[in-house]
Design brief:
353 residues; 7-stranded parallel β-sheet; homotetramer; alpha/beta
């Protein structure tokens, strides 16, 4: 059993990490921190843990974090900057769910997150945590880890995960003429645990809205992953559900769809790309994904369709924003880094209803 | 008091027409038909009418329809073909909420709706029921009606209403370089009253999905309204709420945004366009619409934003799909045709929560 | 047009009062106050008012309140104590939606609300605002108002309204053997606009819970209305919807149900009791109410059933907690006090869906 | 690995059984039947299974059912009568999720389910599947099973499970004076997969209702479990969520609460009763359960409160109606019958949000 720590365990992604790791056969929860709730039994805050033992939140400076094999940082951006270097210095591998180590360019970080990056050297060495698209960095981290080195993984964000998994195979195949348009819808867990007018039940319920058009912080991350600087128009929306993120990606085709084998040919391209990925399922022709089919799981469903007269490929992906979009993906990365099966502890299916 | 009839009063748009017309100061419900429920008190099916008098559904062949000043057809497509010519022949003005008289081209109708149009001559004379964009046809219908002629109004569909109100001012101003992408999300009332797996609570709840990509029947209607044949990529989505339709329209700009006065200049263009429209509100800069703010009302909220590097205008509109997207719009059209104030009986605001 | 003021207009019941009064043919909004939002346009906070003129929130000490004919207090308990005496002293009639003047006994007020009552003399003269059960006090207030006297109406709470309308006819008829059990479920608007973990979408959504068992502040109010001190067991629940309150009231019968004419006889008793009430509808035999059928309206639906072996009458009532349970009822009381038709401005029906 | 079959695998409880059993370390799915979908890949109907292998539905007469160690009957009542005797005759143990073998009295079965029972002898030998209250019957079934005998377990219904787990400890301790009142609320999965007006999203959403008062078929089952014939008043309600069942049980106390040690004493009584149950958690004093805290899990949370003046204990329990209320409980029973740990394959916690 490897010792796992969670910094920021009281938030939504922290709680999801607790759920996944307490059931993981190869990790045990060693320290779960929350400054606001230090000393409080987890079960008294998070009743899903009622009767599951006496786990308590500890303070962020809990020295047991340094005893861990892996620490997961489920903290707001800029906070991870305080933890990652210190943990690495104590030989603890770090899986950062915040945005702090995602952007390779420290200037881009400063522009979008409003703070000068304090450990830019780690931006170079960090592996990017999106295993289906960047396996090499994670496998390299695994090799380094196996040799006793502590590694840092910058796990991809929720919108970037869903969007780029939908767009990447077509882009890599060179069949797309940018710019690409990404229209995505998230459930309210994506807005975090902070109670405000935006997350109030009565305002989120029975409503739909777009937000942060042209200025969402996931835009540069998506552009970096896809290698399309300034070529991505990304619009996030909020809808009244807890978990689920649907990304509808419009990919103008560089050639006539027929010359690409039509939707069958493009579907085969996606099937081939995700061959061997335990979590990504390219749905059959004419089938579009529903977020409910992956909620609570680490799975990704992708459906494809053509907008014929406009000669566009529309790739739609569905994920659970808290699981594959955050905590599940972090565990998936940890599995890879520690040499476990990629889906270890992550095989649960969604509920049908 | 003008006599109003509703054919198909048991469905969602029929019930919404009943709600609006029973409270309308200038119309009275004279006949409300439902073949399946003929003879049944409305209140026993629709308990919002409990205690509101003894209104009963009658059969579709109820002769009282021919005594009406206005009949609203809240029927599935192809069914309106049976009613409109007969009602007009009896000097009854017809407000058709179905798709049967929307497309000017009878071949397009046959292609998309699978039936040869049986009264193509009415496609020429019908006024298109989207008052903010096509006031002239409705004013002409008003003049003809005032002279004793029965008129036919083909009311616009829900997705076309929201989408084209968001796109039209920019297109008319010549600042857009097509194609345009329309990404829209509807509540489940848009799927109609038929109970099936799609509309089952447990499948629609806590889920998001896209559907009918590249083949939704509202596509040709949107293209006709915008004058952009083959230049519209339209993707509808379903989200777990009852009422509400949000359209996010991507309009690539023909010129640099700055040369158009930036978002302020474009906002002013929209403000000017909708000056005098009692129902359309162009929100202030930086404000995006929420469907809850218009639910239960006939209002339209439009917000504007720029996707800067991609040089796109994103226009987002929110409507209540059953009200402004269907029944409210039909009543609005009837108000115009009968020379009443456009917002007569339609002034109610949405609930804040 | 009578001038109306709202103190606490930014909350849920305040917003509902604004919605109702801006559409009321006999009232105009003269001052709407919110200390936190003084000077802010209503539309910038509450977008349902976008385009509805330049109404702004003013501070609680806005002197225009004293120019009003009626001021509605949509404030937390204990705050109304500050406003009611001063407004009355300025000859302004007051409709208090808070709990401050509901309990006749100042000691009970102190026990349940934790503050010594500062105007106990008004507890004697205040009319109780539940017109269907206490018409006499309101008619007396009308007479006093017609003679130029400012009056105070203590409007009933949401749970008491639904519960006692369901229980009262049977109790008054002497067919019940107390204690009575009231099991009620409310939508989340009942928890107010304050954003906290309880009202966070992700915690309220997809969950059910009971709360405040045996200690909810509406208990003494229900007992007072029903004249059953210590004989009411009241359990409120929270369910994931915005508006709606369902009260299921268990009334042990003093005699065999058959001797009371069975469910038909009891149903007739209820029908007779509510004869003439424009808002209360006793549903037909075997029909139980749904909150959706009254949401957004001032209506009350009551259904009746027997639990045969246990010889209990179960009376179920459905209301909209913000409308009939708060703001609509206050307007109904104002209508009566000012000699208007009881349903003036309140006739709108719920949406079918 | 034991071979498991599911009859009626396309319904909600069938799908939940598939979810649980495909992840169960000691069972493998050998045959999953659905007459309507025979020959169809599971994944094409239930997309949570996309990419999970080629499992197909077979017809109800699939002979592979007779090769199973355990067959779970997830069929409507009266249908299980056709399957149980035949499977037992083939030495297959049967876990019946329907109501067909729950009532000991065949006359009661006929009265409530409208059909003469065709295998009343099995009513005597069937173990009742509610392990926390009736462990002996299941342990006896385990012994018989271990000796090669096929056994029948009649799994308890959803409302009876939640209600009786809340009521039983107090009743067994003799501190209750019947009748007891059970007021319960279920999510819409409890209404099953059939699409009708009741389960239509737009009718179930944003509404609350009571139904089947005094005539719900779970009433005699609850009375049988509690040993209180004619002493239970049970009212089920429907609320807009997928999974979750909350039962609020009113238990009039036979003695003064203080003489019972107050809520602490009664809480201890419940704690002692459920000592050793892996799934039941009696929450701390003042804590009431939320269904979300157990959704997707087999857990039961129980909270206790007093209604002091009325001298009633209120016991509130929360379960997932599809899991502990149906499929999870059936697997729990199978674990016991086959000598596995009671929580084998059932240890997953609910999601926090």
């Amino acid at each position: 059993m490897r010792k796992a720590g969670i910094v920021g365990a009281a938030g939504f992604t922290g709680a999801e990490l607790m759920r996944l790791l307490q059931a993981h056969p190869d990790f045990e929860l060693h320290a779960v921190t929350s400054d606001a709730l230090a000393g409080t039994p987890v079960a008294s805050v998070n009743p899903t843990f009622a009767g599951s033992g006496g786990l308590c939140f500890s303070a962020h400076d809990d020295a047991r974090l340094f005893e861990c094999d892996a620490v997961f940082l489920a903290v707001p951006h800029t906070v991870a900057l305080d933890f990652a270097p210190r943990l690495l210095a104590h030989a603890v591998s770090v899986f950062d769910l915040s945005a702090d180590y995602r952007l390779r360019d420290p200037d881009a970080y400063e522009k979008w997150y409003g703070k000068r990056h304090t450990s830019p050297e780690l931006l170079v060495s960090a592996a990017f945590g999106l295993p289906e698209l960047f396996p090499d960095g994670l496998l390299d981290a695994h090799r380094r880890c196996a040799q006793g080195e502590a590694v840092l993984v910058a796990c991809a964000g929720c919108y970037p995960t869903a969007s780029t998994l939908a767009a990447f195979p077509a882009l890599q195949a060179g069949i797309v003429r940018p710019p690409v348009i990404i229209d995505a819808i998230s459930g309210v867990t994506g807005a975090g645990k902070t109670a405000n007018e935006r997350t109030h039940f009565c305002f989120a319920n029975e409503s739909l809205e777009a937000y942060n058009i042209g200025k969402h912080r996931h835009t540069p991350e998506i552009e970096q992953i896809l290698g399309l600087p300034g070529q991505v128009a990304f619009t996030p929306h909020l809808a009244p559900l807890n978990r689920g993120l649907l990304a509808t990606v419009y990919l103008p085709l560089a050639h006539d769809a027929a010359s690409l084998g039509g939707i069958e040919g493009i579907g085969q391209l996606y099937q081939d790309f995700y061959e061997g990925s335990p979590f990504v399922e390219v749905l059959g022709q004419g089938v579009l994904p529903k977020t409910a089919s992956v909620a609570g799981s680490n799975r990704v469903h992708i459906g494809l369709a053509l907008q014929e007269p406009a000669n566009m490929l529309v790739a739609v992906s569905a994920i659970d924003n808290l699981c594959k979009g955050a905590s599940g993906q972090a565990v998936q990365c940890a599995n890879i880094v520690f040499g476990l099966a990629e889906d270890r502890g992550l095989a649960a299916l969604a509920c049908y209803v």
